[in-house]
Design goal:
Elements lengths: L3 E4 L2 E6 L2 E4 L2 E2 L2 E2 L2 E2 H10 L6 E5 L12 E5 H10 L4 E2 L2 E2 L1 H11 L6 H12 L5 H19 L3
Antiparallel strand pairs: 1-2, 2-3, 3-6, 4-5, 7-8, 9-10
Bound molecules: zinc ion (ZN).
Zinc ion (ZN) binds next to β7 and α2.
Length: about 150
Amino acid sequence: MSTKIIYDGIKWHLQSGYFTYRPKINGKVVAIRLHKYIYEKFYGKIPINCVVHHKDLNRRNNNIENLQLLTLVEHGKLHNIGRKTFLGRHHTKESKLKISLAHKGIKESRETCRKISEGQLGKKRTEETKLRMREAWKIRKSRSKNGL
Ligand SMILES: [Zn+2]
């Protein structure tokens, strides 16, 4: 099993189960997780209070199709479902099955995440920007469907 991969010309090292890149920004070392990096590359900034979840629970599978944006609450629920059968750091087949079934009830929640972070920031969008965002969404959705 490889502990290093190259993505976007960057070398990512396996760290705590995640592929991580640690660049120095303004003299400070920051840790960037590959799954977040990829998600943001496709869909833009991850809103506050939201996490990028690996659908197949394999933290090394960072295919965009395997990444799902969830609110912290949804994410917690999802992992709690499999907790009883969760052994150490790895999920058992049984817990994986339970989680994958739970997935079907939870949709990609970018919209929910956006609402939460907007609420936190106290920002309100005008109808016009909302409409523009909705259009941008449709384009993104059709793009991801076509695998572009
Ligand atoms: Zn997760």
